[in-house]
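pasting input
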Amino acid sequence: MAQQKPDPAQLAAVEYIPPRRGWRDPRVEFRKGTYNHAAARRHLEYLGLPNPRDWQPSDADWQLPANWKQIILDGMKDRLERYRSFRLFMDICVRCGACADKCHFYLGSGDPKNTPVLRAELIRSVYRRYFTAAGRLFGPLAGARDLTEDVLKEWFYYFHQCTECRRCSVFCPFGIDTAEITMIGRELLNLVGCNIQWIIEPVANCDRVGNHLGIQPHGFKDSLDFAADELEELTGIRVEIPINRKGAEVLFVVPSADYFGLPHYFTLLGYLMMLHEAGIDYTFSAYASEGGNFGLFASHEMTKRLNAKMYAEAKRLGVKWILGGECGHMWRVVHQYMGTMNGPADFLEVPVSPATGTRFDHASSTKMLHVCEFTADLIAHGKLALDPSRNDHWNVTFHDSCNPARGMGLYEEPRLILRRVLNHFHEMPEETIRERTLCCGSGAGLGTDENFEMRMRGGRPRAMAVNYVRKRHGTNCVACICAVDKATLPPLLEYWVPGVEVAGVHELLGNALVMKGEHPRTTDLRGEPLEGMGGGDA
Amino acid sequence: MPTVLLIAVPYVAAVLFLGGLAWRVWTWAATPEPFRIPTTTGQQRSLAGIAPSRVESPSTTAGVVGRMLLEGLLFRSLFRNVASGPTAAGTCPDPVFLERKALWLGAMAFHWSLLVIVVRHLGLFVEPIPRVASFVASVDGFFQVGSPSWYATDVIVIVALGYLLFRRVRDPLLRYLTLPADYLALAVLIAVVGSGVVLRYVARTDLIAVRQYTLGLAALAPTAPASPGAGFVLHLLSVSVLLAILPFTKMVHAAGMWLSPTRNQANDGRRRRHVNPWNAPAPFHTYEEWEDEFREKLQAAGLPIEREDGRFQNPQAGGGERGAPPAAQAPLT
């Protein structure tokens, strides 16, 4: 961390008193620590996105195209005609305020424009001014605002302080989903070249090389080979890790952080052990080597463009179905967009587990299965030998990642696994899990170093819930199924609740999994000695 | 009030109400919902051993209908409301939030009372008085307090509206985000209810004459009452204003909520393919383009490739519209 970290006590003292000036005043101060850097020119040029230039949000002049206002208004009109969600959510909010204190960014910052209702009003006010009779006639009285450059900057600031986690939409009496509004807001900003580096760079890498980090095929292979070596050392078993192999039954796609980040890497080890143990005929792909899709944080078109690779590669390799790793927004895309955008997947077959014979009808159209669904089925059929005592050094709680929770309904599958591989498992308070889960504060492309203060603010409610189980049960590990969580929860917890680690569900599975012919394990996947095993005489 | 207005105003209001509502609903319905985006508030239907949440995460039409009825009739989502109490405590909340049902109770009290009151009024427009109207009225007046006896809903709706206004004014955050239009809606509703209550309990009007007038309105053969009285005119005007502005204000949520895609779609995104009518083309970076760029590296790493001996001449259709990738550019990391 290059920047000085703010004092936690200072960030914790949040004032929930609205400012004196009304919210119609759009002026925003781009204060260090609360915003993300602009996307570099070369990435926009490579992707063919509008208005590539060198600029930063803190600049006075954003170098917008001369007709930027028309571009935005045309873009709004176009999207009002294409998205019922957008049009409806512009029309039916009653400002009851039920959503207001459900947003982790409001809870952490006290900034009223971080309430979902006002975040939406930022764009709704412009909608009223240019697209409704009441707004045209009565202006501010009807809640209308002119679209000015300050408004655009305000959009940029606040639509990048929303993680599209959908918690507000759970509580809204009409199901108004701020994620929809933020997504459209970001699309509009993209039309005039106002995008952030941490979204656009992974998008460019993913498009060209195949994954967010831009890891080229040989690097990808090295990384997986290294994992095989490591597993051999840990278990005495050499697992096969095929890449780009034609004729495999299953294509396995994981978020790229799994093979290059920590603690993600231990989750990768867990997958590999499970796949080996279940005897799955699968292959990775170096071309479709990214399950995550930062296109989702830029535009629907970019989502579709990046996600197309999975089906294209599945077709080329001739697999029967696709298995997907632990990732949050990847699963929002797979579950809610993929079939529509990139389907029909009529060249694939309904996923059937070769180990249990289970036919996964709930994926009969998209033909893609979540690894937790697959593993939970294995465990339910008794296909995996498990020794939960190997996880006895962990006292675990489970963080429902926003997208698999509220965009999929994947609540019990990971819990089924965790209950079988752990002896010590405690849920956080009900108001903070399942459909009411609190976001890590860094999703939707906001997990940057320069945005550190805002991330810590946004993640604080989650951290407080972790702190609650830590105090009560001695929790020392948060399990989750999202690559962004695994990257951003560790610094968050270190900041607010030091001493709590983060692990993927399949890492914990890998610890407990008794593989056929393995040598006695002395350490967990992290190389930490196991209690009562590696101890004194190993 | 000139007689002609007593006839023109309600008709203009009715036309604006029905026409406006039809136009709004048509606009929404004619706009496609391109994606399957339900907010899943319960367990998906997946494995045999895991009980799905049939209403909170519906996978069938029946489940969706159940979910929408719970929303529309019992305000299910509003009932979830939990307080984090940041305004009171001045700090980030303790994770054990206090349940907060006051808003739900206020909203239920207001909307259900309004519905009962509307049903009670049906007798003014239909001859003979519909059974449902007289039944609802008799239940509503069950307590027989005062003379004329008070309807329970008249009391409840006043209290509920008072609460909805009070919370808007009292809470600094709500006050901050409230628009003039929000107060307008409350003001019109208070005018409707207030004038109606005055009309029934204080300055009584000639109900026979009023009913003749309203039956005439309903039959499209209106005759204005001879001496309607100020209270009645005020009630008529405020109801007309309410009907006229409803489709053009936030009150249109009454119709719009039924079309909300996060609630009225089944959670079956992977089970059935949702078709997007405008499914925009998105050319992507094809495998062929990718292999062309990384062929040597793939070969060196011993990974299988399609063309051992040279480039793909004609990148497949369906992608590659942007041509070859800029291989000369600096590494993207």
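fyi Chain A is about 45% helix and 5% strand.
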